Amino acid sequence: MRILVVCGAGASSTFVAQRVRHAAHEQGLAYTAFAGTERSLPIDLDAADVVLVGPHLAHALERIEQDAASRGTTVVLLPSDIFTDRDGTRTLALIRAAVGGSGGPPPTAGAAAEPPD
């Protein structure tokens, strides 16, 4: 899954993207996350499955959702306290909830498949 994190200038989105990448890696998920800006959104949107919108861009959410809908891209408005999510796990949970948990469960090392009942 390709996750675009959008903010005004790209600084805070860079930190969120980095934390999401780390959390996804820790959970064994093949997710990528990259930062973008409101200005770069029309170009960046083509490379994203999910767009995380910084809380300070709530005013632009409707426009972003319209642009994303034509591409089948999910949009998530991040809560105002998202920057306190230091390890990215809360942000990752928001993403998984928005897309219905797609991406599958994290793999477990050495786990054998259980026989059906």
From TrEMBL:
Q: Which GO terms describe its molecular function?
A: kinase activity; protein-N(PI)-phosphohistidine-sugar phosphotransferase activity
PTS EIIB type-3 domain mapped to chain residues: 1-105
Q: Name one Pfam family in it.
A: PTS_IIB
Q: Which GO terms describe its biological process?
A: phosphoenolpyruvate-dependent sugar phosphotransferase system
Which parts of the sequence are annotated with region: Disordered?
98-117
Supply the PROSITE patterns for this chain: PTS_EIIB_TYPE_3
Q: Which positions does the record annotate as the modified residue Phosphocysteine? A: C7
Transmembrane segments annotated in the record for this chain:
none
Ordered alphabetically, the record's keywords are: Kinase, Phosphoprotein, Phosphotransferase system, Sugar transport, Transferase, Transport
Keyword check for Iron: no
InterPro entries attached to this UniProt entry: PTS_EIIB-like_sf, PTS_EIIB_2/3, PTS_EIIB_3, PTS_sugar-specific_EIIB
> What's the name of the protein?
PTS sugar transporter
Look up and give the organism this protein is from: Microbacterium allomyrinae
